[in-house]
Write a structure and sequence with these properties.
Blueprint lengths: L5 E3 H13 L4 H7 L13 E3 H15 L15 H9 L5 H15 L3 E8 L2 E8 L8 H19 L5 E5 L11 H5 L2 E3 L5 E6 L11 H8 L4 H5 L7 H11 L8 H7 L4 H11 L3 H19 L4 H7 L5 H12 L3 H8 L1
Parallel strand pairs: 5-6
Antiparallel strand pairs: 1-2, 3-4, 4-7, 5-7
Protein backbone atom coordinates (compact mmCIF):
# COMPACT_ATOMS: atom_id res chain seq x y z
CA UNK A 1 0.00 0.00 0.00
CA UNK A 2 1.48 3.34 -1.04
CA UNK A 3 2.08 5.77 1.83
CA UNK A 4 0.29 9.09 1.62
CA UNK A 5 2.63 12.07 1.31
CA UNK A 6 2.97 13.89 4.58
CA UNK A 7 4.97 16.09 6.91
CA UNK A 8 7.77 14.53 9.04
CA UNK A 9 6.61 14.02 12.61
CA UNK A 10 9.74 15.72 13.98
CA UNK A 11 8.94 18.81 11.92
CA UNK A 12 5.35 18.63 13.17
CA UNK A 13 6.57 18.57 16.78
CA UNK A 14 8.63 21.68 16.05
CA UNK A 15 5.44 23.41 14.85
CA UNK A 16 3.47 22.34 17.96
CA UNK A 17 5.98 24.01 20.30
CA UNK A 18 4.61 27.47 19.45
CA UNK A 19 0.95 26.93 20.37
CA UNK A 20 1.86 24.82 23.39
CA UNK A 21 4.01 27.59 24.86
CA UNK A 22 1.09 29.99 24.38
CA UNK A 23 -1.15 27.68 26.42
CA UNK A 24 -3.17 26.37 23.49
CA UNK A 25 -4.65 22.91 24.10
CA UNK A 26 -3.26 21.45 20.89
CA UNK A 27 -4.15 17.93 22.01
CA UNK A 28 -7.83 18.91 22.17
CA UNK A 29 -7.60 20.50 18.72
CA UNK A 30 -6.17 17.27 17.33
CA UNK A 31 -8.84 15.27 19.11
CA UNK A 32 -11.58 17.45 17.61
CA UNK A 33 -10.04 16.80 14.18
CA UNK A 34 -9.74 13.03 14.80
CA UNK A 35 -5.95 13.25 14.51
CA UNK A 36 -4.28 10.63 16.67
CA UNK A 37 -0.50 10.43 16.29
CA UNK A 38 -0.37 7.26 18.38
CA UNK A 39 -2.70 5.55 15.89
CA UNK A 40 -0.32 6.03 12.96
CA UNK A 41 1.28 2.84 11.61
CA UNK A 42 4.34 1.72 13.56
CA UNK A 43 6.70 2.49 10.68
CA UNK A 44 5.12 5.86 9.88
CA UNK A 45 7.31 8.94 10.26
CA UNK A 46 4.86 11.39 8.70
CA UNK A 47 1.44 12.91 9.28
CA UNK A 48 -0.59 12.79 6.03
CA UNK A 49 -0.88 16.16 4.31
CA UNK A 50 -4.67 16.33 4.45
CA UNK A 51 -4.65 15.89 8.24
CA UNK A 52 -1.82 18.37 8.65
CA UNK A 53 -3.69 20.93 6.55
CA UNK A 54 -6.69 20.70 8.86
CA UNK A 55 -4.45 20.95 11.93
CA UNK A 56 -2.54 24.05 10.85
CA UNK A 57 -5.75 25.81 9.76
CA UNK A 58 -7.49 25.03 13.07
CA UNK A 59 -4.42 26.10 15.07
CA UNK A 60 -4.16 29.46 13.32
CA UNK A 61 -7.88 30.02 13.86
CA UNK A 62 -7.70 29.15 17.57
CA UNK A 63 -4.76 31.51 18.08
CA UNK A 64 -5.71 34.16 15.51
CA UNK A 65 -2.06 33.95 14.61
CA UNK A 66 -0.52 32.87 11.30
CA UNK A 67 2.84 32.54 13.06
CA UNK A 68 1.38 29.86 15.41
CA UNK A 69 2.98 31.46 18.46
CA UNK A 70 6.51 31.86 17.14
CA UNK A 71 6.46 35.66 17.45
CA UNK A 72 5.86 37.92 20.46
CA UNK A 73 2.98 39.68 18.68
CA UNK A 74 0.63 37.48 16.63
CA UNK A 75 0.42 37.68 12.87
CA UNK A 76 -3.33 38.15 12.83
CA UNK A 77 -5.28 36.05 10.38
CA UNK A 78 -5.38 37.94 7.11
CA UNK A 79 -1.70 38.94 7.17
CA UNK A 80 -0.85 36.75 4.18
CA UNK A 81 -4.02 37.79 2.35
CA UNK A 82 -3.16 41.49 2.71
CA UNK A 83 0.36 40.81 1.46
CA UNK A 84 -1.09 39.14 -1.65
CA UNK A 85 -3.55 41.97 -2.30
CA UNK A 86 -0.80 44.57 -1.92
CA UNK A 87 1.35 42.90 -4.58
CA UNK A 88 -1.15 41.59 -7.14
CA UNK A 89 -0.82 44.73 -9.30
CA UNK A 90 3.00 44.65 -9.37
CA UNK A 91 4.50 44.38 -12.87
CA UNK A 92 7.09 41.70 -12.13
CA UNK A 93 8.50 39.42 -9.44
CA UNK A 94 11.15 41.92 -8.35
CA UNK A 95 8.49 44.47 -7.47
CA UNK A 96 6.42 41.75 -5.75
CA UNK A 97 9.32 40.84 -3.49
CA UNK A 98 10.33 44.42 -2.71
CA UNK A 99 6.78 45.43 -1.85
CA UNK A 100 6.15 42.32 0.27
CA UNK A 101 9.44 42.93 2.11
CA UNK A 102 8.19 46.42 3.00
CA UNK A 103 4.87 44.94 4.11
CA UNK A 104 6.63 42.48 6.44
CA UNK A 105 8.85 45.23 7.87
CA UNK A 106 5.85 47.44 8.66
CA UNK A 107 3.96 44.59 10.34
CA UNK A 108 6.69 43.03 12.47
CA UNK A 109 10.16 43.63 13.88
CA UNK A 110 11.01 40.02 14.79
CA UNK A 111 11.05 38.66 11.26
CA UNK A 112 11.78 40.03 7.84
CA UNK A 113 13.04 39.35 4.34
CA UNK A 114 15.70 40.96 2.19
CA UNK A 115 16.44 40.70 -1.54
CA UNK A 116 19.99 40.80 -2.85
CA UNK A 117 21.27 40.69 -6.42
CA UNK A 118 24.84 39.93 -7.41
CA UNK A 119 26.12 38.65 -10.73
CA UNK A 120 23.47 36.40 -12.26
CA UNK A 121 22.12 35.36 -8.86
CA UNK A 122 19.32 36.67 -6.68
CA UNK A 123 19.19 35.89 -2.95
CA UNK A 124 16.08 36.06 -0.78
CA UNK A 125 17.10 36.09 2.90
CA UNK A 126 14.87 35.52 5.93
CA UNK A 127 15.70 37.00 9.35
CA UNK A 128 14.06 35.67 12.51
CA UNK A 129 14.80 36.77 16.11
CA UNK A 130 13.13 33.73 17.76
CA UNK A 131 11.84 35.72 20.77
CA UNK A 132 10.55 32.66 22.68
CA UNK A 133 13.73 30.61 22.09
CA UNK A 134 11.77 27.78 20.52
CA UNK A 135 13.04 25.16 18.11
CA UNK A 136 13.11 27.47 15.04
CA UNK A 137 13.08 24.81 12.32
CA UNK A 138 9.33 24.82 11.65
CA UNK A 139 8.93 28.58 11.48
CA UNK A 140 11.94 29.12 9.23
CA UNK A 141 11.10 26.23 6.90
CA UNK A 142 7.41 27.13 6.69
CA UNK A 143 8.12 30.79 5.86
CA UNK A 144 10.57 29.78 3.13
CA UNK A 145 8.09 27.29 1.67
CA UNK A 146 5.26 29.82 1.63
CA UNK A 147 7.29 32.57 0.00
CA UNK A 148 8.87 30.29 -2.64
CA UNK A 149 5.59 28.64 -3.62
CA UNK A 150 3.57 31.85 -3.44
CA UNK A 151 5.98 33.77 -5.69
CA UNK A 152 6.08 30.83 -8.11
CA UNK A 153 2.30 31.03 -8.28
CA UNK A 154 2.44 34.78 -8.86
CA UNK A 155 4.54 34.35 -12.01
CA UNK A 156 2.90 31.03 -12.94
CA UNK A 157 6.30 29.35 -13.17
CA UNK A 158 8.16 27.17 -10.67
CA UNK A 159 11.25 29.11 -9.60
CA UNK A 160 14.31 26.98 -10.30
CA UNK A 161 16.18 27.13 -6.99
CA UNK A 162 19.95 26.77 -6.99
CA UNK A 163 20.62 26.28 -3.27
CA UNK A 164 19.08 27.05 0.09
CA UNK A 165 20.79 27.91 3.38
CA UNK A 166 19.58 27.41 6.95
CA UNK A 167 21.01 28.64 10.24
CA UNK A 168 19.95 25.51 12.15
CA UNK A 169 21.80 22.14 12.16
CA UNK A 170 20.70 19.40 9.77
CA UNK A 171 17.62 17.72 11.29
CA UNK A 172 17.01 13.97 11.35
CA UNK A 173 14.82 14.30 8.24
CA UNK A 174 17.31 16.39 6.25
CA UNK A 175 16.90 14.07 3.25
CA UNK A 176 13.31 15.31 2.97
CA UNK A 177 14.56 18.78 2.09
CA UNK A 178 15.37 17.63 -1.44
CA UNK A 179 11.65 16.97 -1.89
CA UNK A 180 10.72 20.26 -0.22
CA UNK A 181 12.95 22.56 -2.24
CA UNK A 182 14.36 20.52 -5.17
CA UNK A 183 17.86 21.92 -4.63
CA UNK A 184 20.89 21.34 -2.42
CA UNK A 185 20.39 22.39 1.22
CA UNK A 186 23.13 23.77 3.48
CA UNK A 187 22.82 23.81 7.27
CA UNK A 188 24.60 25.68 10.08
CA UNK A 189 24.91 28.70 7.79
CA UNK A 190 25.17 32.36 8.76
CA UNK A 191 21.74 33.18 7.30
CA UNK A 192 18.50 31.63 6.08
CA UNK A 193 18.40 32.29 2.35
CA UNK A 194 17.46 30.85 -1.01
CA UNK A 195 19.45 31.52 -4.18
CA UNK A 196 17.98 31.53 -7.69
CA UNK A 197 18.66 33.08 -11.10
CA UNK A 198 18.01 36.82 -11.40
CA UNK A 199 16.09 36.17 -14.63
CA UNK A 200 13.08 35.15 -12.53
CA UNK A 201 12.90 38.67 -11.08
CA UNK A 202 12.01 39.97 -14.54
CA UNK A 203 9.11 37.54 -14.96
CA UNK A 204 5.78 39.40 -15.18
CA UNK A 205 3.04 38.76 -12.66
CA UNK A 206 0.63 36.32 -14.31
CA UNK A 207 -2.22 36.57 -11.78
CA UNK A 208 -5.02 39.08 -11.26
CA UNK A 209 -7.57 39.93 -8.55
CA UNK A 210 -9.94 37.20 -9.80
CA UNK A 211 -7.37 34.38 -9.68
CA UNK A 212 -6.15 35.76 -6.35
CA UNK A 213 -9.59 35.34 -4.79
CA UNK A 214 -9.64 31.70 -5.86
CA UNK A 215 -6.08 31.18 -4.59
CA UNK A 216 -6.76 32.70 -1.17
CA UNK A 217 -9.69 30.37 -0.51
CA UNK A 218 -7.22 27.81 0.86
CA UNK A 219 -4.02 29.81 1.31
CA UNK A 220 -1.49 29.88 2.80
CA UNK A 221 -2.04 26.45 4.39
CA UNK A 222 -2.40 24.85 0.93
CA UNK A 223 1.18 25.94 0.17
CA UNK A 224 2.45 24.05 3.21
CA UNK A 225 0.66 20.82 2.39
CA UNK A 226 1.80 20.60 -1.23
CA UNK A 227 4.79 18.91 0.28
CA UNK A 228 6.15 16.06 -1.77
CA UNK A 229 8.64 16.08 -4.58
CA UNK A 230 8.47 18.16 -7.72
CA UNK A 231 7.83 15.70 -10.59
CA UNK A 232 8.30 18.30 -13.31
CA UNK A 233 10.60 17.64 -16.24
CA UNK A 234 12.83 20.41 -14.93
CA UNK A 235 13.31 18.58 -11.63
CA UNK A 236 13.91 15.23 -13.35
CA UNK A 237 16.51 16.70 -15.70
CA UNK A 238 18.19 18.51 -12.83
CA UNK A 239 18.49 15.17 -11.04
CA UNK A 240 20.10 13.59 -14.11
CA UNK A 241 22.63 16.39 -14.40
CA UNK A 242 23.48 16.34 -10.69
CA UNK A 243 24.20 12.61 -10.81
CA UNK A 244 26.42 12.99 -13.88
CA UNK A 245 30.20 13.19 -13.48
CA UNK A 246 30.21 16.25 -15.73
CA UNK A 247 27.18 18.17 -16.95
CA UNK A 248 28.77 18.52 -20.38
CA UNK A 249 28.71 14.71 -20.70
CA UNK A 250 24.90 14.74 -20.91
CA UNK A 251 23.81 16.25 -24.24
CA UNK A 252 20.22 17.32 -24.75
CA UNK A 253 19.65 14.45 -27.19
CA UNK A 254 20.67 11.91 -24.55
CA UNK A 255 18.35 13.50 -21.97
CA UNK A 256 15.44 13.38 -24.42
CA UNK A 257 16.17 9.72 -25.18
CA UNK A 258 16.24 8.82 -21.47
CA UNK A 259 12.87 10.52 -21.05
CA UNK A 260 11.51 8.69 -24.12
CA UNK A 261 10.77 11.92 -25.96
CA UNK A 262 11.87 13.61 -29.13
CA UNK A 263 14.05 16.66 -28.69
CA UNK A 264 11.24 18.83 -30.09
CA UNK A 265 8.73 17.50 -27.54
CA UNK A 266 11.14 17.92 -24.65
CA UNK A 267 12.01 21.47 -25.69
CA UNK A 268 8.29 22.35 -25.92
CA UNK A 269 7.49 20.75 -22.55
CA UNK A 270 10.33 22.63 -20.85
CA UNK A 271 9.13 25.87 -22.41
CA UNK A 272 5.69 25.22 -20.91
CA UNK A 273 7.38 24.92 -17.50
CA UNK A 274 9.18 28.21 -18.10
CA UNK A 275 12.69 26.77 -18.38
CA UNK A 276 15.20 25.83 -21.04
CA UNK A 277 17.79 23.05 -20.98
CA UNK A 278 20.72 25.48 -21.00
CA UNK A 279 19.23 27.37 -18.03
CA UNK A 280 18.87 24.11 -16.07
CA UNK A 281 22.46 23.21 -16.93
CA UNK A 282 23.69 26.62 -15.80
CA UNK A 283 21.82 26.27 -12.51
CA UNK A 284 23.38 22.84 -11.88
CA UNK A 285 26.83 24.10 -12.81
CA UNK A 286 26.54 27.01 -10.38
CA UNK A 287 25.23 24.73 -7.66
CA UNK A 288 27.96 22.13 -8.20
CA UNK A 289 30.70 24.76 -8.32
CA UNK A 290 29.57 26.46 -5.11
CA UNK A 291 29.22 23.05 -3.41
CA UNK A 292 32.83 22.12 -4.23
CA UNK A 293 34.06 25.54 -3.15
CA UNK A 294 32.05 25.74 0.08
CA UNK A 295 31.98 22.13 1.27
CA UNK A 296 34.91 20.29 -0.30
CA UNK A 297 38.62 20.95 -0.67
CA UNK A 298 38.53 20.30 -4.40
CA UNK A 299 41.24 22.36 -6.15
CA UNK A 300 39.80 25.11 -8.32
CA UNK A 301 41.48 23.69 -11.43
CA UNK A 302 39.74 20.35 -10.79
CA UNK A 303 36.40 22.09 -10.31
CA UNK A 304 36.87 23.77 -13.68
CA UNK A 305 37.35 20.34 -15.27
CA UNK A 306 34.27 18.94 -13.53
CA UNK A 307 32.28 21.90 -14.86
CA UNK A 308 33.42 21.11 -18.39
CA UNK A 309 35.72 24.13 -18.81
CA UNK A 310 38.84 23.53 -20.87
CA UNK A 311 40.76 26.27 -19.03
CA UNK A 312 40.62 27.34 -15.34
CA UNK A 313 40.63 30.97 -16.48
CA UNK A 314 37.37 30.41 -18.38
CA UNK A 315 35.82 28.92 -15.23
CA UNK A 316 37.02 31.89 -13.17
CA UNK A 317 35.38 34.33 -15.59
CA UNK A 318 32.15 32.35 -15.69
CA UNK A 319 31.96 31.99 -11.91
CA UNK A 320 32.49 35.73 -11.42
CA UNK A 321 29.71 36.39 -13.92
CA UNK A 322 27.43 34.00 -12.01
CA UNK A 323 28.06 35.21 -8.47
CA UNK A 324 29.94 38.50 -8.74
CA UNK A 325 32.97 36.88 -7.05
CA UNK A 326 35.99 34.87 -8.13
CA UNK A 327 36.08 31.18 -7.04
CA UNK A 328 38.90 31.95 -4.60
CA UNK A 329 37.08 34.88 -3.03
CA UNK A 330 33.90 32.81 -2.73
CA UNK A 331 35.78 30.02 -0.96
CA UNK A 332 37.26 32.51 1.48
CA UNK A 333 33.83 33.94 2.35
CA UNK A 334 32.56 30.42 3.06
CA UNK A 335 35.43 29.81 5.44
Amino acid sequence: MKTKPGIPLDLLQSMLNGPRQQGIDIDQIMKDLNIDLSALPDNSTQLPNDEFGKLIKATWAAMDDESAGFLSTPLRQGYFSLQCHSTITCPNLRRVLLRSIRHARVCHDEMGFALGEQGEEATLSFMYDNPHKLDPVWFIVSMMIIWIRWTSWMIDRPILLERINFTFPAPSYADEFQDLFACRSYFNQSENSVVFSRRFLERPVAQDPQTLSEFLANAPECLLTRYKSDNSLTARIRGMLQSSDCVENLPFEVVADRLHMTTQTLRRRLKEEGNAYQEIKDAVRRDTATYHLARLNTPINDIAAIMGFSEPSAFNRAFKKWTGMTPGAYRETCR
